[in-house]
């Protein structure tokens, strides 16, 4: 029987999958940090480019400050940054020197563990990033084998990648990353032991989702195949399209005879916190999902499912979800079977929405998808459908993007943006609109504490405070009375 460790994912993947990356802010993070540090997690899946952008754009919070404060609050538990290829916050492909600066700045602000999930499953790209991370002081690098289903992604292909990654001295461990929850127990029974045999002594981790009810089942057998660490979320941030729930996984693995050395009381407290947070903020809680074979057609990751629903609702297109999902599978096949993960999941989804909402398919193509067809993100696994490539080649925008220069040298970029800026502010301004960074800085430091029990009351008071038709407010409960009075609103004839 194996000794299994847990990587906790609520703050990053659980938040992104179920709450479109909007459910967590700095105060909500720091409130639970000391408890998370007591559990005994191998690491906390903490942040990625998406969440850094969300912190600035939607929360008006400094993601660097959040990272520094969280690292200080969790001295016993490494914080993880998830990197998806040569990109940082922006979808633009970044230069090696820019990525090295980003990695160095993350290390300086408290990130100790890096997960590398190249969206093309490009082993050379992951190895290059791992080398940079170790050169700038990163402690631990885990490289992903991103699981997908396509005509060419068989076990032998994963074994080849695993062997190449494991040979790098800069990569400390590998993990099978299943962002769509697509890995069935039957497929895992052949693939994972073969991958483990190729990795030798390097540890193997497993990351999956409960999207169609498979993730937790695969976790139960994973220790038998050589997996030493599984990645789980907690409370309302788990299950559904998120990761398997930590408490249930721990209990079931122990029942099967495995050892898991965690503080059970602290683990339960973490779960209760995320459940109370979801209830207080009106956020959806993950629920067990039924198996849905149709999901294999589009393979949309849990994180993108939540984002898709938010974007469709904001555009008043929620009724088109089924048609968009159907179109997404068709677009993926036409574009050479890219893996449905960031940034390709966003590209595929955007194109599917445009194809569904316009009279002609590919009448409009987003710049990032054009860049993909031009090879800016690497070579597709299979050739792009000729009729689609011809259509995109005929667009005037494609000609313009062919002439587009790459990212300028770092020194030139610094001179253009601000030579005296800190590395932290420079990286934000180089990858985000300046106005959004200005608004973040103008907002100043936010609160660092959060109480889910009083959050609904505070929200109600804020809504009532801006109303002009209420002159008196009284809140009463046994042993407590709060009365607020304002000047009555004068009515004019």
What does this protein structure show overall?
The chain has 493 residues and is an alpha/beta fold. The chain has two domains: 5-281, Alpha-Beta Barrel (TIM Barrel), CATH 3.20.20.70; 299-402, Conserved carboxylase domain (Cyclin A, domain 1, Orthogonal Bundle), CATH 1.10.472.90. It has 22 helices and ten strands. The chain has helices at 10-19, 26-39, 49-57, 63-73, 96-108, 123-135, 155-166, 185-199, 215-221, 246-255, 264-281, 295-298, 302-314, 321-334, 344-357, 367-373, 386-393, 396-402, 410-417, 423-431, 434-443, 455-465, and strands spanning 5-8, 43-48, 79-83, 113-116, 140-146, 173-177, 204-207, 229-232, 472-477, 480-485. Helix 7 packs parallel to helix 8 (185-199). The protein is globular, with a radius of gyration of 24 Å. It starts with a strand and ends in an 8-residue tail after the last strand. The mean pLDDT is 91.
Task: Catalogue the unreliable spans.
Answer: none
Number of helices: 22
Q: What do we call the CATH homologous superfamily of the largest domain?
A: Aldolase class I
- Overall helicity: 40-55%
Main sheet characteristics: 8 strands, parallel, barrel
- Alpha-carbon Rg, integer: 24 Å
Backbone shape: globular
> By helix and strand content, what is the structural category?
alpha/beta
Highlighted features:
493 residues, alpha/beta, TIM Barrel, Cyclin A, domain 1, 2 domains, 22 helices, 48% helix
How is the secondary structure organized here?
Blueprint: E1 5-8, H1 10-19, H2 26-39, E2 43-48, H3 49-57, H4 63-73, E3 79-83, H5 96-108, E4 113-116, H6 123-135, E5 140-146, H7 155-166, E6 173-177, H8 185-199, E7 204-207, H9 215-221, E8 229-232, H10 246-255, H11 264-281, H12 295-298, H13 302-314, H14 321-334, H15 344-357, H16 367-373, H17 386-393, H18 396-402, H19 410-417, H20 423-431, H21 434-443, H22 455-465, E9 472-477, E10 480-485
Parallel strand pairs: 1-2, 1-8, 2-3, 3-4, 4-5, 5-6, 6-7, 7-8
Antiparallel strand pairs: 9-10
Helix pairs in contact: 1-13, 2-4, 2-11, 6-7, 7-8, 14-15
